[in-house]
Amino acid sequence: MDLFIQLTLTGLTNGAILALAALGFVLIYKSSDIINFAQGEFLLIGAYVTYAMIAQFGLVWPLALVLTLAVAVALGVVVERLVLRPLIGEPIISVIMVTIGLSSLLRAIVSTIWGNQPKAFPPFIPSQPIHILGATVGADRLWAIVVAVAMLGLFNFFFKRSKEGIAMRAVADDQQAALSMGISVKKIFAWAWSIAAMSAAVGGALLANIVGVGPELSSFGLRVFPVVILGGLDSIPGAVIGGLVIGLLETYTGGYIGQGLNQVVPFIVLIIILMVRPYGLFGQEIIERV
Amino acid sequence: MLTLNNVEVIYNDIILVLKGMSMHVPEGQIVGLLGSNGAGKSTTLKAISGLLKPEDGEVTDGSIEYRGETIHNRDAEDIVRMGIFQVMEGRRVFEHLTVEENLIAGGYTRTDTRDLHKDIDMVYGYFPRLKERREQTAGYLSGGEQQMLAIGRALMAKPRLMMLDEPSLGLAPLLVREIFDIIARINAEHGTTILLVEQNANLTLSVAHYAYIMENGRIVLEGAPDDLKENADVREFYLGLTEVGKRKSYRDVKHYKRRKRWLS
Question: Distance (Å, rounded) from C-alpha A224 to C-alpha A279?
Fold first, then answer.
């Protein structure tokens, strides 16, 4: 029983961080139909920038976090301006290819600045062990869950209630029609990429706090796919629930069946979901009028 | 209010679609723009509303003036903010948004957010059926309701000039009548100037104050609706009428004796 609770809590934390990365992914897909292969690198950059602020410049962590978010916003705007704006009106597939290139570029920049060696991260979130129902988890892991849930609430409110959020969904539905109502597609894209980079950066900072920084953090980008396919590519609640489910699935498999298999299970889920429910648990069905 | 002078539009640097298009839309009126498929009606509207750019089209010659300003090749968002709103062909509602969210998106450029809900109610006043379906996903509305939503969305932006691209497309005749009546009401009650692009000549000539007929990228005929209705070419080619009381014989159709006079 202890093992079960232990695994559950670990799974939920991993899932929460996956969900944060997936949230950004979904956001970009929702507003622009673009699949962002560089999402893992956004997370990587978030982790390294937080690391630099705290370990290299010696800033206090709230300030470091705010600066990291600022860097993430800047990153989103720069990517939109330099990479995506020239591609407006081009087929979606070219843009998707460009994000693959972008991911290599970002990874290269990170390893040029910080090298390839994993580094220990000076923990900024208290990680003293907390005992829950006989299991022991670090407080930092619990924080990850809280932060992910808070971000979900925030995003959901943004999309349902705010004018900018509704405009973002409108752009996702029909770009040209959105343009005809004076919605600036460029601005919306910049918004989407900035918010996506921000949520990934938060995930990166939390993750770095738990496991340290290293180039392999970007592999989270790949692990996002089962999450978003399960939850539905364009569903924000789907990203969070998908994240938690996949996180739990990974740790349960690792704990009860064996290490190694846990890496594979999410992708088995991915294939099954694609076969039975291609738009995911909460994704939008394609509306067809006849 | 809006004047087009000899406008030339080229797509992809090579396809000449508008070949010297000129027209004038006076403030407060309904102006009809008729023409068959491919005449360049939609291109004209897009040239005005700034939607050519994403389609690789460009105004290469002539000018479009709106309230004393040249507006061609400007960004769509600027043009909406200046008070020109295009209701695109084929309705183009945001399918996954609810009716109400569609309306909010329509009012995106507005700065007076406080009146937003008053205006949503105003739209529901024109289209009570939208009110019944306010929480429904727009993609599941019927074609007529979607057209109402498209027009309602335009109303939300409080435009000075509303341009409608084939609002009758694919709708039942009764619904078309209803939509046209509402267009006339919007014009009368709000003083909104309306540029109406249509293939349905009969109905357009019944609501418009002035009309243009377009063919092959330019205006070939213009006039008050009553004059146009009397024009022999318009009667034959747009209204499907021949001399009163005479049925058209199959031979006439086959040999196509009558030639449009404006082609010579």
Answer: 15
